[in-house]
Design goal:
The chain is of the alpha/beta class. The protein contains 18 helices and eight strands.
Length: 397
């Protein structure tokens, strides 16, 4: 049996001191995507988050989930779990099926499905349970356990939480610098100060997650927080060459990804999701709605590829300089800094602006509903008056 390494020994000697990390993403960090990321300077990749209970009981789910290849290293497999024995069993099945370098516990998922299933960030108030999940697996497995979490609104509680994860046996802690409530249109900015505080409070390697939209952001995050590596999810989905510091034409990345899907097949829903992310800005433009329709409805890889090639035909002359693109109004509308065919981040509307917009929409809806009610009341009064007049006329005859 190989000697089990932990902490910085594991980080350096097994993982190779990774700086740029592809995040675990449900239905998105599959083998083909991981291989694409590795071509563009990703040092470490995580699998998608798998559900430990389903993994344990469903053999097909296990087989479909654990697709890998010899080049798919270093690799960390992530599970959500709310039971120590189930998490351990899922981890044991994993190491018996494939070669990987660690098992990660998801403590960061903020989605409603995690709330219903009682996992992810909805475990973050149950420290004893989390401690038991990590410590049992750490004692029983020959490979390390790591953890990915979110921050609390309170800084001191966040620090103590991370220290608890370390005591439980987590050999790397990834800190997403947002709270559980920061999601969807209320996502906002991640707090790097909290991540820095965690880094200074624990002795194991720390990865940062949040606000990474470019290679420059990743490098700045490491410099400002002192973390050992930076993980990207959404930024990587919009530009899989993010860690190489490149911003290629979106069709270049899309075709390269589709070639990898030919080699490492995955569900069409994954492909569709990736194309919508990579081609996002162009597909928002009216002239490309036909291609958006194809991608949304097809279940054929050739149709996916055909849509990408048509998009290339529409923009290649602008990309090569044969035609001049100077549509500043379009770029302003899309909230982008580069032409729409270039891989670049999707920038969300700030939460305060979103709340203000939703408040206006709600107020307008209330006014419209009130107007409809008044109109109905007027019609009802008119009908009643007409009926009364009719009765008067009938009685007078």
């Amino acid at each position: 049996m190989k000697e089990k390494k932990g902490g910085y020994e594991f980080y350096r000697e097994v993982l190779g001191s990774p700086k740029y990390v592809v995040a675990p993403m449900v239905d998105a960090s599959e083998l083909a995507w991981r291989q694409l990321g590795r071509r563009y300077n990703a040092d470490l990749c995580y699998t998608p988050m798998f559900h430990s209970a389903v993994f344990v009981r469903d053999q097909k789910y296990r087989k479909d989930s654990l697709q890998t290849c010899p080049q798919d290293r270093p690799l960390i497999v992530q599970f959500c779990a709310n039971d120590p024995k189930t998490f351990l069993e899922a981890a044991k099945l994993t190491v018996n099926m494939i070669e990987c370098d660690a098992i990660d516990l998801n403590l960061g998922c903020p989605q409603i499905i995690a709330k219903r299933g009682h996992f992810g960030s909805y475990l973050q108030d149950e420290w004893e349970l989390i401690h038991n999940i990590i410590s049992l697996a750490s004692k029983e497995l020959d490979i390390p356990i790591t953890a990915k979490c979110r921050v609390f609104p309170d800084l001191q509680k966040t620090i103590e939480y991370a220290q608890m994860l370390e005591r439980a046996g987590a050999q790397i802690i990834t800190v997403h610098g947002r709270t559980r409530e920061q999601k969807g249109p209320l996502t906002g900015l991640a707090n790097w100060d909290y991540i820095k505080a965690v880094k200074n409070a624990v002795s194991v390697p720390v990865f940062a997650n949040g606000n990474i939209q470019s290679r420059a952001d990743a490098d700045r995050c490491m410099a400002e927080t002192g973390v050992d590596g930076v993980m990207s999810a959404e930024g990587h989905l919009t530009n899989p060459a993010i860690f190489a510091g490149e911003s290629p034409a979106m069709w270049e990345m899309a075709i390269e990804y589709l070639d990898l899907v030919d080699e490492y097949p995955c569900p069409n829903s994954y492909v569709r999701g990736h194309l919508f992310k990579m081609l996002h800005h162009c597909l928002r433009l009216k002239e490309n709605f036909d291609l958006r329709e194809i991608i949304a409805k097809t279940s054929n890889l050739q149709d996916f590829r055909g849509a990408v090639m048509k998009l290339k035909e529409r923009y290649i002359d602008f990309h090569t300089g044969v035609k001049k693109y100077d549509n500043e109004e379009e770029m302003k509308q899309l909230n982008i800094k580069q032409p729409p065919w270039i891989c670049q981040p999707y920038v969300r509307q700030p939460p305060d602006e979103y709340k203000e917009k939703m408040a206006k929409i709600t107020e307008q809806q209330k006014k419209e509903k009130l107007a409809e009610q008044r109109e109905e009341e007027t019609k009802s009064d008119s009908t009643l008056n007409n009926n009364n007049n009719k009765r008067v006329n009938e009685n007078g005859q």
